[in-house]
């Protein structure tokens, strides 16, 4: 990220401002079997035809070697300016991906799909630029030669003797929407070369490729692969049939190693998987020896792993020291049908003649095993002795000397007791076991074994206190003792190593299970990310940074440092790093350190994806840290998958709650419309009918009849006014726009004010007030509490018989005032009705009530007002009969000095 990315702010702006399209672009590849067949010209000719149809076309990058006929075809096409990448040694011109995305044409032309970009570009390879263009919805025309397909590398090398350095994964070629083979006779192509129409003379470095035999073979390969790709495109028409076919597919397994020649094995397995239309899995068995690999071998292993991923393999890892046994176990549990292995032609030295393939044949007699020969004689090149043991540990050296001294003292005691020499030898062998347990490294066990033999010879063989031995059998005893010591120490070290492996595996498994449990218990998205980040720090022992996503925007980073870390987190969230996180979010791809995209970044960025949607971006700090191990990487991906599921579940729950709320609101609206349309029709009809009678026949009505009609109109209009007031009050309270004016008020005055506005039918009932204290005061908004009392008293008047007794009482208990409205009516017998009385639009089915006025807003409004005052409201039975409605308010002290 050097030359091009010197301005952090501009990079972040360019990433953030990139246009986003939902539909994916289409890819057309012009394929040739050798340079000079006319791929670029064919692409430019097609572009001119598309331009005539009104397609917006831009030339992104064309390498034409100053050929006049190629330059002529560029006329009339818009050329996108190149970006100049300057390094210490030289400068080069490259395709400007960001400018192409900003320009956002319908179609862009790019030469040389397998090109390797200069250091400083976002991606290492041009095909990665193409993938980003396609994700942005831009169609791409591009060119390549058939020998640049990854799986054909070894075949092409065997034909031409030329190693192709610039290659593309098979998946890129297979994903093309259209493939066009640009063909020419080999003789004509050779003629072009001789006339200087392919390369300038100073750049003609591949002249030995242009022989008729080689070109004919390459042409055959190109025809066959193009036909296969066209067949794959045709098969995609019936997607359902293709899905049904998956159930009977072959399952190809390839075994990964750190050998450079393992790439050939991977490519062969990939071709087999493509030929059989089968599943493809790459298995790596991590053994204790993997810790002793050289840095070169570790880098080679990572390259092989990346190649397997590019070839479409699913990566699996297992841990143990028995490679054939681990492979056999995986094969049995994963329904593998074919295994592809590599084997050196060199014979093994030593006693062990069998190899992995022979053991697998014995363990899996019914599985087909394919052996791919290679030239490298060993999978592992272990660290040299001076690197494995650079310095002797003082602590382990003291332990070794102490154990040897203790064993010698015990041996001298046994000698004093006249025990046999075999007992003394057993003591030293026990010392070997103890030394192997308490020290680190096999070298201490080896040193102890040799020293124990020398000490035994010095103290316990004649002549004593010398390294000579008179008895002819002593040398054999020494050799047996030394061999037993070595074997014992080796077995002890192996057991300890297996214990360490088991503990490490158990720890990682525990972290994974603990992660799943904690994510399930997390209550919301921030808690999920917090738990996930802490588990990743626990697993990887590295700083982790999370970028949450809210409404399509990447939020500020959250830092989760490892224990005792003094590093400033801001170093890893600057403009460049933020730009990588933005790119990962927009493209749903990993990027950063150890990848081919933004490979100069200090962190490795992964998208936490739920399907095609990115739910968060996780960054693992890799600056000056070793790359992740294969097993660690697999566990981390599994944990991120768990995190994605948890975040997706949380979003689904939120969406479900929104839907439930919308359903409730819709039900509420429907109930409101239904209730209003039903309950308003009767009073409005009464008002309009009575008014019509008064207007049409005033002379035939006496004064008493007119007064009755006036009274009915008044009652119905007041009912409508109260209904509207209740609706407005409820909407203000629920919307939070009602301003409460709390003051200390006398309960007697509030109750008296409410009785002035109750239903006129109150004269048919006996209403009385009972107060424990005439000066009782409560903290309230008197206007709203008056409305509560009116609704409750009207409710008692409505649902009780004429002549019933209604009592309004108030009493104080400690810091609250309890207000009760009791009656001696028929009461409410159903407990279910009591529970639902305060729900909006609910009305009790009572024959004494006025059915036309059953909208059910009064008690719901009372509950909202009382709750806003911090009180409680309820209903209970009145003994011996009737109902009691009650609510509470905060009591206030009377100031007698006012």
Automatic annotation (TrEMBL):
PROSITE patterns the UniProt entry points to: HIS_KIN
Subcellular location: Membrane
First-level EC class: transferase
Reaction it catalyzes: ATP + protein L-histidine = ADP + protein N-phospho-L-histidine
InterPro entries tied to this protein: GAF-like_dom_sf, HATPase_C_sf, HATPase_dom, His_kinase_dom, HisK_dim/P_dom, HisK_dim/P_sf, Histidine_kinase_KdpD, KdpD_sf
Domain annotation Histidine kinase: ranges: 675-893
One MF annotation (Gene Ontology) recorded for this entry: protein histidine kinase activity
Enzyme Commission code(s) on record: 2.7.13.3
Topology term for the membrane: Multi-pass membrane protein
Transmembrane segments: 391-416, 422-438, 445-461, 473-495
Cited Gene3D superfamilies: 1.10.287.130, 3.30.450.40, Backbone structure of the membrane domain of e. Coli histidine kinase receptor kdpd (1.20.120.620), Histidine kinase-like ATPase, C-terminal domain (3.30.565.10), HUPs (3.40.50.620), P-loop containing nucleotide triphosphate hydrolases (3.40.50.300)
Keyword Transferase (UniProt): yes
Annotated Pfam families: DUF4118, HATPase_c, HisKA, KdpD
Domain of life: Bacteria
Keyword terms: ATP-binding, Kinase, Membrane, Nucleotide-binding, Phosphoprotein, Transferase, Transmembrane, Transmembrane helix, Two-component regulatory system
Protein name, as recorded: histidine kinase
Organism from which the protein derives: Paenibacillus peoriae
Organism placement in taxonomy: Bacteria, Bacillati, Bacillota, Bacilli, Bacillales
């Amino acid at each position: 990220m050097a030359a091009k990315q010197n301005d952090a702010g501009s990079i972040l702006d360019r990433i953030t401002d990139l246009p986003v399209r939902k539909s994916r672009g289409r890819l057309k590849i012009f394929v040739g079997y050798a340079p000079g067949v006319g791929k670029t010209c064919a692409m430019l000719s097609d572009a001119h035809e598309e331009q005539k149809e009104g397609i917006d076309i831009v030339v992104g990058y064309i390498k034409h070697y100053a050929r006049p006929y190629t330059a002529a075809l560029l006329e009339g096409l818009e050329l996108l300016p190149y970006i100049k990448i300057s390094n210490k040694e030289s400068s080069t011109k490259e395709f400007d991906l960001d400018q192409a995305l900003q320009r956002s044409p319908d179609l862009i032309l790019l030469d040389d799909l397998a090109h390797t970009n200069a250091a400083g570009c976002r991606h290492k390879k041009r095909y990665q630029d193409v993938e980003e263009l396609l994700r942005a919805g831009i169609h791409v025309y591009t060119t390549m030669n058939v020998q640049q397909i990854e799986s054909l590398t070894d075949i092409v090398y065997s034909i031409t003797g030329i190693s192709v350095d610039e290659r593309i994964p098979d998946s890129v070629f297979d994903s093309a929407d259209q493939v066009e083979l640009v063909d020419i006779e080999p003789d004509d192509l050779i003629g072009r070369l001789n006339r200087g129409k392919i390369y300038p003379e100073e750049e003609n470095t591949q002249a030995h490729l242009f022989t008729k035999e080689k070109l004919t073979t390459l042409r055959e390969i190109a025809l066959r692969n193009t036909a296969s790709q066209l067949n794959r495109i045709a098969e995609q028409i019936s997607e359902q049939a293709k899905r049904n076919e998956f159930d009977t597919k072959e399952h190809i397994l390839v075994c990964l190693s750190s050998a450079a020649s393992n790439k050939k094995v991977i490519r062969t397995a990939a071709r087999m998987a493509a030929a059989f239309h089968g599943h493809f899995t790459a298995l790596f068995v991590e053994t204790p020896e993997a810790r002793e690999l050289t840095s070169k071998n570790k880098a080679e292993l990572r390259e092989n792993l990346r190649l397997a991923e590019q070839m479409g393999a699913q990566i699996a890892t297992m841990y143990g020291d028995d490679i054939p046994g681990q492979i056999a176990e995986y094969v049995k549990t994963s329904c593998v049908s074919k295994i592809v292995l590599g084997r050196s032609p060199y014979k093994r030295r030593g006693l062990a003649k069998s190899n992995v393939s022979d053991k697998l044949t014995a363990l899996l007699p019914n599985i087909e095993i394919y052996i791919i020969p290679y030239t490298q004689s060993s999978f592992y090149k272990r660290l040299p002795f001076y690197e494995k043991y650079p310095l002797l540990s003082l602590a382990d050296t003291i332990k070794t000397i102490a154990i040897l001294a203790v064993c010698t003292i015990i041996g001298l005691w046994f000698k004093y007791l006249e025990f046999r020499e075999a007992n003394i030898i057993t003591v030293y062998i026990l010392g070997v076991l103890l030394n192997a347990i308490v020290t680190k490294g096999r070298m201490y066990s080896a040193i102890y074994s040799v020293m124990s033999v020398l000490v035994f010879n010095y103290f316990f063989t004649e002549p004593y206190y010398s390294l000579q031995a008179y008895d002819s059998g002593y040398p054999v005893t020494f050799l047996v003792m030394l061999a037993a010591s070595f074997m014992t120490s080796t077995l002890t070290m192996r057991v300890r190593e297996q214990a360490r492996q088991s503990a490490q595996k158990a720890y990682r498994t525990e972290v994974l299970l603990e992660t799943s449990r904690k994510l399930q218990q997390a209550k919301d998205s921030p808690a999920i990310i917090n738990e996930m980040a802490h588990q990743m720090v626990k697993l990887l022992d590295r700083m982790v940074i999370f970028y949450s996503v809210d409404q399509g925007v990447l939020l500020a980073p959250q830092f989760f440092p490892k224990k005792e870390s003094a590093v400033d987190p801001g170093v890893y969230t600057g403009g460049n790093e933020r730009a990588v996180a933005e790119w990962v979010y927009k493209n749903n791809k990993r990027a950063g350190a150890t990848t081919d995209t933004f490979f100069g970044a200090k962190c490795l960025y992964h998208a936490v994806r739920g399907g095609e949607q990115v739910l968060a971006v996780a960054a693992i700090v890799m600056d000056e840290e070793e790359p992740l191990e294969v097993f660690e990487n697999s566990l981390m991906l599994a944990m991120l998958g768990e995190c994605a599921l948890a975040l997706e579940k949380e979003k689904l729950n939120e969406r479900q709650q929104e839907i439930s709320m919308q359903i409730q609101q819709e039900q509420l609206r429907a109930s409101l419309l239904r209730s209003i349309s039903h309950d308003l029709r009767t009073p409005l009809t009464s008002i309009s009918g009575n008014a019509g009678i008064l207007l049409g026949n005033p002379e035939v009505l006496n004064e008493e009849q007119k007064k009755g009609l006036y009274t009915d109109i008044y009652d119905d209009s007041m009912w409508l006014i109260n209904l509207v007031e209740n609706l407005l009050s409820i909407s203000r309270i629920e919307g939070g726009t009602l301003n409460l004016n709390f003051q200390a008020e006398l309960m007697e005055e509030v109750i008296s004010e409410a009785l002035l506005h109750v239903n006129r039918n109150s004269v048919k009932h006996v209403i009385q007030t009972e107060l424990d204290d005439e000066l009782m005061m409560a903290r309230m908004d008197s206007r709203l509490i008056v409305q509560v009392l009116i609704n409750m008293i009207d409710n008692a008047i409505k649902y009780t018989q004429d002549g019933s007794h209604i009592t309004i009482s108030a009493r104080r208990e400690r810091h609250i005032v309890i207000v009760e409205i009791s009656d001696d009516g028929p009461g409410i017998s159903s407990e279910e009705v009591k529970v639902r009385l305060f729900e909006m639009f609910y009305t009790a089915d009572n024959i004494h009530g006025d059915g036309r006025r059953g909208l059910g807003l009064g008690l719901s409004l009372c509950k909202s007002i009382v709750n806003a005052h911090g009180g409680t409201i309820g209903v209970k039975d009145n003994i011996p009969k009737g109902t009691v409605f009650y609510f509470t308010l905060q009591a206030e002290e009377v100031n007698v000095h006012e």
